Amino acid sequence: MTWLRAIAAAGLSVLMPGAGHALIRDWLRALVFAGLYFSAIWFFFPTEMIAAAGSMSEAMDILSAETDTIDQFVLSFLVLFAAIDATFRAAGFPPTSNNDGDGPSCPQCGKELDDDLEFCHWCTTRLEPLEPDDDDGTQTRDETPQP
């Protein structure tokens, strides 16, 4: 299912940079990419001339006449970079494991878990119930993902 989520994040990022990151709940990156994209549109496109256009075809004519290759490259680069970043983040690269916590971690996404839940509240992977550990009397969780 991770690959499907990665494809969906990439597709949303192509349509609107930041939307793919919002899908994977990476809110800071979603705001950064959306902010960069809208700032680049405001900076590179003749927004006043486009707003004053009478029809959509007239607006597209103004857009193609007033926008040079560098401006189009910058916007395309932002869209491509947002799509690639959202794809890799949705696929789990780089791994986002929190090894600094004391509690158990999810075998699927690597994030820290609450001891009383039977599923990962980050990626909804079902977990095995707690079993007592023979060595020191503490409980451990069998962290094998269930289909």
Automatic annotation (TrEMBL):
Keywords from the named record: Membrane, Transmembrane, Transmembrane helix
Pfam families from the UniProt entry: DUF7575
Region Disordered, annotated ranges: 127-147
InterPro entries for the chain: DUF7575
Ranges of compositional bias, category Basic and acidic residues: 138-147
Superkingdom to which the source organism belongs: Archaea
Occurrences of domain DUF7575 (ranges): 102-128
Entry's transmembrane regions: 32-52
Protein name (database record): DUF7575 domain-containing protein
